[in-house]
Amino acid sequence: MSLSRHVITGIGTAQVGAEYIREVGRNSFRGHHGRGGVETAYVVETDRGATGWGLPLSTGDPAALIGRNVAELIDPELGVIEPGAEFLDYALHDLAARILDVPVYAMLGAAGSAQVRCYSGGIYLDDLDPQEAPAGLTAIKQNLAQDHEFGFRDFKLKLGRGYRWMPYQAGLDRDIEVTRLARELYPEADILVDPNDGFSVNALTEYLAAVSDCRLYWIEEVYAERREDLEFLRAHLATLPWRPKIADGEFDPNVDQILRLARADLLDVALMDAVGYGLTAWRRLMPALTASSTEASPHAWGLPLKTLYAAHIAAGLGNVPIVEGVPGHTLGTDGDGYQLSDGTLILSDRPGFGIDLTAAGSSS
């Protein structure tokens, strides 16, 4: 059915969230992340009974969109085309795909596979807790095993213990121990590491020398993305026996700067947030990244729902080799909308994003 036959008659809200499979601790600069959180989603309805929903990109004015034709707000080939509707990016993509009776990834072009590699993003600095008797490497070992049991086969390790929580050298030594432990326990896994800008150039050089045989898949946000530091990193990686990918762009990104770094061969993977940046924005950006031989992996930590969004970007636009998974479950819905099996996230072929709200989670 054509989008032009649908008119927006209502925009309500719903509460959705996450329940992690364990308490998640600190990263290099931020305190404990807890057991999950709750977010407000928007629910868009039309005069023909179609409904779509999604997390908002920002605040907006729902009342201004009542009575608007859906085709005036979103073009299936481009994304959201009405500036006043950009905050409803994911809800409108869900709605349009449901009207067209296709999954979102198919509406995006199905340039990738509907079976998407998915790593655990949940290995935080839990070795530092509890404060009165830190569990040490036992906690990391247990968390890796729990995430493996959940279905993940690849893992991202939070690093940067010496930035805030431990003395510099002791923290760096623990970062190295954790990396080597993960590689020893899971020799076939892709290991990704992320100090959340908590390394100095010297710390990174020492760390890479100590884990040069661990075959890291990527290094993420090692320090703020200054061109000079990334030039040093690229040159230094060329001297090592194994060269991990450089991933950046998650925190408060300057996208023009990210593109300049990509074109200068200083960035291998762009990480702008799935929701903070937006689906329409990713649709516009991906051709430029592809042209510069730079991959993408939209940041998805926080809610399993964001992992689902990132996976649809991967399956729809291509150029996304792996996405970030959240070890936990989505609240306020009829399920996570996907199946995680042996490290692969298998997308549903249901229309839209393939996930429905429960009646208890919805409100007007």
Automatic annotation (TrEMBL):
The keyword Metal-binding applies. Its cofactor is Mg(2+). Residues 137-240 form the Mandelate racemase/muconate lactonizing enzyme C-terminal domain. The lineage of its organism: Bacteria, Bacillati, Actinomycetota, Actinomycetes, Propionibacteriales. GO terms for biological process: carbohydrate catabolic process. It comes from the Bacteria. This is L-alanine-DL-glutamate epimerase-like enolase superfamily enzyme. SUPFAM superfamilies: Enolase C-terminal domain-like, Enolase N-terminal domain-like. Gene3D superfamilies: Enolase-like C-terminal domain, Enolase-like, N-terminal domain. Keywords: Magnesium, Metal-binding. It comes from Kribbella steppae. One of its GO terms (molecular function) is hydro-lyase activity.
